[in-house]
Amino acid sequence: MALDAHGNADSQSVPGVGPYVLRTLFADVPLSEDGSRDDIKINCVEYLDRNLYIGTSDSELLHFFQIPPDPADHSGIPTFILASRLRPAFSDPAGASSASRPGVQEILLLPSVGKACVLCNSTVTFYSLPELSPVFGTLQVKNCSWIGGLDLNQGAQNATGDGATIFLSLSRKIQVVKIGEDARVIKKIDFAGSRLSVRRDTIACVADSRSYALLEINHQLKIPLMSISSLDEAQPGTIVGQAQDISGSAGGGLLRSNSSSQAHAQTGSPDPPTHRRGTSLGNFISSVNRRQEQHAVEAEEPGSRSITPPESVASPPPPEAGAAARSSTPDGTAEGRSTRAQAPAPTFLKPHIVSPTPDEFLLVTGTSPSEPGIGMFVNTEAEPTRPTIEFEHYPRQIAVDGGSSDLSSSKQLLGPEEEGFVLASMSKERADGIHYGLEIQRWDADVGENEPTKYWLQPNQENAIKLKVPQPLGVRSLLGPSDTCFQEIVDRLCKRRFTPFPSGHVEYSSVSLKSVDSRTALSMERMSKEKELFDRDNDSQDDESLPEGWQATRNTEEEEFARRLAGTTARLAVWAGPYIWWAIRNPLILQLDAQLAAASAMTNETPVKRRELFKTINSFRGCDARSELEFLTFSYIRQQVGILLLISFLESAENSFTGAELQAMEEALVESQLDPRVVLSIIPGVRNEVIETRRGIWIFGGVKTTAEKFISSPGFNTKVQTTLGSLSPLVLQFLRRFLGTWRRKKGFGSVSDENEVFRTVDAALLAVLLELDQNSPPGPPRGRSIRAELYDLVDSGVDCFDRAETLIESYHRLFVLSRLYQSRKMAQEVLETWRRIIEGERNDGGEFQDGELRVREYLTKISNQALVQEYGIWLANRNPRLGVQVFADDTGRAPKFEPTYVVELLRTDAPGAVKYYLEFLVFGKGHTIYVNELITYYLDVVVTHLQTSSEARDVVLSTYDAYRALQPPKPTYRQFLTDNAPADDEAWHSRLRLLQLLGGKYNYDSSAIRDRITSLTSIADDLLVPETIILDGRERNHENALRLLVHCLGDYDTAVAYCFRGGASVYSIYQADTRSAPPASPEDARAPKRRESAPPTQNEQARLFRALLGEFLKIEDVSDRVEQTSLLLEKFGSWFDVSDILSVIPDSWSVDLVAGFLIKALRQIVAEKNETTVARSLSSAQNLKVQHELVVKIEEKGPSIES
User: Fold this and answer.
1) Within 13 Å and on the Cβ side, how many CA atoms surround 295?
2) pLDDT value at residue 249
3) Which of 947, 951, 918 is nearest to 932 (CA)?
4) With 0-12 CB in 10 A as exposed, 13-18 as middle and 19+ as buried, what is 306?
């Protein structure tokens, strides 16, 4: 079959996209009984209840019976056997030759009465159905030009009453005959030369050789209509559109009624009814005639083509018109062209009448067979109802099909809405010769100013070759419908198992979730082993749920489902030569698929090809499916377009798709619900991520064919081993968007094989993002980047967990792997992965920064105590300060660790972290039980450092010298050490911590510490001066402490503060808080006790100040000696006795040096004297008061006698 659609131009278009297709009804009909003749033609065809009746030009009536088809035969071609070959009786007119016999002209079936009327060589005979046995004896009707006139509103199969009413056209009248048990003429209508009639109820549209008319049967009224040929002048006395009474004289009379329907109501009136018609029909016909005359005037000039149909199409013209008609035949072309300059002569054309709706008739007019024809619609009141339609040439035959009111159309069962078409048989001249076919167009469409779309349908090339001489097509709407099925729909919509890995390919079989890196080729051995593992793990349940032969069963079920949708009803017959076809509505799916096939046939991947594909899918964009078939059609076409666009995208040079085209392709693939595994299977580099279980991947058969054809192509086979990295960025970005969109469908119930689909989607998307992220800069993601999208993917969890591990490992993205584990709350694997990164294993992303700190933070979020302990110890060995925080943190989710247990654990597994944990216990938690041990750690560090490093000893001694050289006021020595501490000197910082603990309010073994410090005297004296000072103060050896402060450190302010505090503290403020933790052990209870930090007495302070004065007087530098002594006496003179001071002050000193002290002392003495006097006076007054109170009491009691 070839089919093309066109507008104004006669351009060859895409085969198969039109509204109709031809399907074989009967191939190679045996027209000749012995097969010796090939000049016999089919004149008419009729079909009813599997009985096919064919009338031939050889005056034979062939009866065939259709054999029920074999259920296993899906070819759709019916099989017929010859039931009878009948030659109906006829009588030749006087003087007629056998060569002029037209043969069987008409077959009229009347199933309601079980009869058939056959018109053969102008003779009507009657037969019984279905076997065609003669009835009514020898009854024949001779000189009949046509038979018909069945009421289309009632239908031949639904006739009621006592028979079926038909028309017989005789030379001068139309006989109305009722066929029942016999044939009876019930009425004669005075209408001469009628050649065709179509009836609706009591209104018949008839035609003679020159014009059309409407007849009202019951009242025998006639309304003349237009001429068949617009060049033919109206007959004298005929007024178009005016009703005439033809029941009386031949001339008739004019009626004054407005319509034939009114004539029905006036049958009882004694006056003859009249019918007056307005001018609208006349004006309408006049405009049509002018247009046709213009076509005739603009006819082809000499040298142009002139095509005239055979005489079987045009009516047998009168003798005077015969020459004119023959002059336009191919043999008389030269003579005919010489008269073109003159006004065209009228040509007798074959009338065409069809009725598309119960109250409309379609009539065809023209000027000549080779000129355009005009189709005009009139209703039963002779009024125009629709815009005209135009045929490219005057048709030989026409038929209408479909429409909202046509219940007998040849249609696909699509829904309540039905399109109406008119099919016109004609010929077209093309470069390779004359083509006979059907011009198809809508009769019910309001195209407005646009030209209507026309389609051309002709037999396929194979059948055309078998016709020795091209022959025109006959077309007719048959009485009985036939149910058929489109195997093409079944082939396209029936779901079949898709094979992404054909046998013999490296990727054959389902890919394991633990498959090898997608960027490398796989060995057959490894693939086979992983296939066995995959089948065992993933199909173990399938083995129980899939019975033997399940695939064949499903194939059958899918085919039955598709076949139910592919059913259709055929009623239009088309024939040429010995071939008969059904003209069946072409389903939308086949029309669109034909467009896709034509676009796919383009060899180059050009924008034109893509535009055709997009045009196809856009043709139904926004349309709602009216039936299940349309719903599947839209889905199937979207899938086909998506696959074809994707193939074009992959094969086009440098992927020359625009952004809009890429977006449209992605939308088509997603909206079509095509299994994404099919899409991935045709893209090298990601196809090995496709997961196919034993249940397989089931898709539309047409899509399966397209995809597997591409996969099996030689060009694809050369790209099978293409790595993911070799794909272009455009392809990778397409995959990223497409798979991301599909991933958002997780949880939708509409996704079949959800488990396998989303495992495949997740694995492929992860591989694509890993590949794209290789070009991202190192470090954390920035904004909505590829890396951020990768993190979102693994954080939200993937279904292909094992495959994801393998992929991420292959790209050396350990931090991404750790996030994958976090999505599954696999804390141990997370920590193990982080440890690999921290210990230096390759991690290409570079985004894992401050790894040890992140490990420490993560350990607070997990509740597994054993895991916390394991990685806490590991971290304590790497970073002791950070590691001990794991055990010291009270906010973690894991159960708390006992400090004693942690200390022992660290001593065993991380000795270097013990000190830091003890610091936390002592300084952070206030656990004084560990102070002595922590001091020992600090002291060991400091002493060992001094013992082993002479440079360290020199540095310590130099600090003393530097500190002594400072001018007052100067900071304390401890502050001096803090300000000058190197950042990375552990011994220095340990000494600061040691000083802090020694000077704090803690219980520790001072004797053991002194012994450890004394061990340094063998190397150098007074290396740890401040430590010794603190111990001396703790042991009440104040004189030595003051000596060291004054002479070794020159820290005079600290020495004064030491005396003022009574030796309680050297490098910390006065502590009045007496709270302390109870002893944790008996040893702690026996530890040396430091005196309570109560305020010192004045005597204690005075004793210390006197000792300090003695040390100040021993300062070698005279100026410092004088200055510090003077300041001490001036500020703290009240603690000194004047006589003692005067006895120790050198006589060489000027009185001015101690004048301040002396003045204060004398004032103090005077003040004390005055205070003593006042106190003595107060005491005397108090004594007098007491004596007075005594006397008063005695007097109150009076004398007492004691016996």
Assistant:
1) 23
2) 44
3) 918
4) buried
Pairing mode, strands 183-189 and 196-200: unpaired
Q: How far apart are CA 1011 and CA 50, in angstroms?
A: 126
**How far apart (Å, rounded) are the C-alpha atoms in residues 393 and 473?**
14
The C-alpha angle with vertex 870 and arms to 868 and 873, in degrees rounded to 5, equals 100
| Cβ neighbours of residue 861 closer than 8 Å, sequence gap 6 or more | 892, 893
| Cβ within 8 Å of residue 458, ≥6 positions away | 1, 2, 3, 435, 436, 437, 438, 464, 473
Rounded to an integer, what is the distance from CA 3 to the centroid of its chain?
36
Torsion sign (Cα): 673, 677, 682, 685: positive
Cα distances from 679 to residues 461, 682, 715, 807, 1184, in angstroms, run: 36, 6, 17, 20, 123
844, 675, 842: which is closest to 757 by C-alpha?
Answer: 675
Q: How far apart are CA 1064 and CA 1050, in angstroms?
A: 20
How many other CB atoms sit within 10 Å of the CB of residue 10?
13
Amino acid at 476: R
Here the tokens at position 197 are 């009639």
Q: Which residues contact 979 (CB under 8 A, 6 or more apart)?
A: 971
pLDDT at 159: 59
Contact present, 458 and 539 (Cβ < 8 Å):
no
Reduced to 3 states (helix: H, G, I; strand: E, B; else coil), residue 303 is coil
Angle between helices 814-823 and 786-795 (to 10 degrees): 40
Give yes or no for a contact between 205 and 198, defined as CB atoms under 8 angstroms apart. Answer: yes
Q: What is the mean pLDDT of each run of 10 residues along the chain (1203 residues)?
A: 39 72 91 87 94 95 90 76 94 75 94 94 94 91 92 73 87 92 91 92 93 92 91 71 72 35 36 40 53 47 36 38 40 41 66 94 93 94 92 95 62 58 92 90 77 88 64 92 90 92 52 38 42 46 70 92 91 93 93 90 80 90 90 93 91 78 91 92 91 90 92 81 84 93 87 90 95 90 90 93 94 95 94 94 91 93 93 94 90 89 92 89 85 88 89 88 84 87 87 86 85 85 85 84 84 84 63 39 41 69 83 82 79 75 78 74 79 86 87 84 72
Place of tokens 């304590």: 876
Alpha-carbon distance of 641 to 814, in angstroms, equals 40
**Residue recorded with tokens 């076409």:** 637
Residue reference for tokens 């018909």: 148
Strands (E) located in 327-443? 353-357, 360-366, 373-379, 389-391, 397-402, 420-430, 433-442
* Structure tokens belonging to residue 940: 């060991």
CB–CB of 872/887 below 8 Å?
A: yes
Residues in CB range of 404: below 8 A, 6 or more apart = 417, 418, 420, 444
CB 181, CB 173: distance < 8 Å: no
The CA distance from 331 to 587, in Å, is 42
What is the distance between the alpha carbons of residues 634 and 683, in angstroms, rounded to a whole number?
Answer: 24
Contact by Cβ (8 Å): 598, 526: no
